[in-house]
Amino acid sequence: MRSAHEICAHSLIEDRVPAAGRYEPVRNPADRGQVVGHVALAEPDVVDLAVAAALRAAPGWGRRTANERADFLRTAAKLLEADDDARARLLTREHGKVIWESRLDIAGAATILRYYAEFADRLDAEVDHVNKLGTARIRRRPVGVTAVVVPWNYPVYLAFLMLVPALLAGNPVVVKPSEVVPLALTDVLTTLAEALPPGVVTVVQGEGATVGARLTAHPDVRAVLFTGSTATGRSIIAGSAGTVKRLGLELGGNDPAIVLDTAVVDDTMAHELVRGVYTSSGQVCYNVKRIYVHQDRYDELVEAFTAAAGQLVVGDGLSPDSHIGPVTTPAQRRKVQSLVTAARADGASVVEAGKVATGTCWDRGLFVRPTIVTGVSPDARLVQEEQFGPAVPILPFATDDEAVRMANDTEYGLAASVWSADADHADAVARRIEAGSVFVNAHRLGCSDLAMPFGGVKQSGLGRRHGYEAVEECTDLQTIAHITSPAALPGPART
């Protein structure tokens, strides 16, 4: 794996495209005094050079068959596996997540490359439609240069969920990593780019307001794929309107878990819910953000959940003792703390659970203990806003109708879960939830398999990731109509 300096120097991949001249330190959220590396801050002219390189690569990459492109993806997958552990340790140092999560994040690159390579035959297939006019050949073709704007929470896995379907579909891709967590992803993308023809993958590090905005508005960028906040998604929609781009947006989520009166509350269930809430310190787009519990199960659920959360150990993500690490940014910690403080001021009960790992630099890191909030109003900010951190409100309900109403009473609709020992009861409630995915009796990383279309409704996004649907969204349908019987066309007879 490259050093932090070499990763920074590869902020743009291709010799014709120079690296940016300004840099900012990337700090370890477990100890903010540690500088892990530096991120390049590119200006709009550097973005233009990257897009130009992608535009030059587009004809050659697009003319290859999907099977030829799939061979490149499989080769890249083999190369990427060589430095998985070193990259995972780097990712933990720049992000804060515990090491097993970083390994999962990094390993996702090769997994996703191989998964989408298997769709090559399906993409290469063309459909002939024969009618009285002749034969219409229906095919899928590349959209064109595609911008991929990556979030900081699962940077490698989420980047590859966006860029690999685009690559298989024949689109060259310009990637903007998050300026918060850019290092491991840039190193992975450097290896990917070296396995592909020049210009097919380029990377521009920098700030969203500069790099992201330029990519979104660039006239030669034909599609933008983004994962991140709803607010940024709105900006991308507005910025791309002038050039009518193809958009794929996976946006924010305020995901509810509904524990029905037919649920069995035990240690297994409580630990499942705890993992659904606190994995990655709550910084997962479809983590559980709100828990609604039938009033007959409320007290036992709160007790079991609090006890399970109390077993969590908070510390440096590289420590083998840590279950969760710090939150990733100072702004994120301030937001979580402000939401909890506001709930407490309104009379809610706040319990800070968990233990601190030995040797943790608590005062120098961005740590937040697993927090449980009860006695909170349904209108509280902690309930209505996406906290994206290790604090969760637990609220009672009396009827299924009330639970569904509260779960749907939000602008978001990414994912949700229903918990019950009665499969029919759970399914009936799940069908009433306004969310792109509803899980039953689990709600955490891994529940949304690669083969299951994933995305949001309402203000949680546009389009779907995962599965062949993601490939289709990176293509345009084209009909080539061979008119062999023009006499069958409508109109007056020839004179």
Largest sheet: 7 strands, mixed
Q: What is the fold named in CATH at topology level of the largest domain?
A: Aldehyde Dehydrogenase, Chain A, domain 1
Principal-axis shape = globular
Radius of gyration: 24 Å
Spans with pLDDT under 50 lasting ≥5 residues? 3-18
**Percent of residues in helices:** 25-40%
Give the CATH class of the largest domain.
Alpha Beta
The tally of domains stands at 2
CATH superfamily label of the largest domain: Aldehyde Dehydrogenase, Chain A, domain 1
Structural class: alpha/beta
CATH architecture of the largest domain: 3-Layer(aba) Sandwich
Distance between the termini: 75 Å
Q: Mean pLDDT, as a whole number?
A: 94
Q: How many distinct beta strands?
A: 20
Q: Give the DSSP E fraction (strand runs of 2 or more residues).
A: 15-25%
Number of contiguous helices: 17
The order of strands across the largest sheet is 13-15-16-11-10-17-18
Helix-strand blueprint:
Layout: H1 4-9, E1 23-28, E2 31-40, H2 44-63, H3 66-80, H4 84-95, H5 99-117, H6 120-124, E3 127-131, E4 134-142, E5 146-149, H7 155-168, E6 173-176, H8 183-194, E7 201-203, H9 208-217, E8 223-227, H10 230-240, E9 246-250, E10 256-259, H11 267-278, E11 290-294, H12 298-309, E12 313-314, H13 330-345, E13 349-352, E14 355-356, E15 371-374, H14 381-384, E16 391-397, H15 400-408, E17 415-419, H16 423-430, E18 437-440, E19 461-462, H17 467-472, E20 475-483
Parallel strand pairs: 5-6, 5-8, 6-7, 8-9, 10-11, 10-17, 11-16, 12-14, 15-16, 17-18
Antiparallel strand pairs: 1-2, 3-4, 4-20, 9-19, 13-15
Helix pairs in contact: 2-9, 3-5, 3-8, 4-5, 4-8, 5-7, 9-10, 11-12
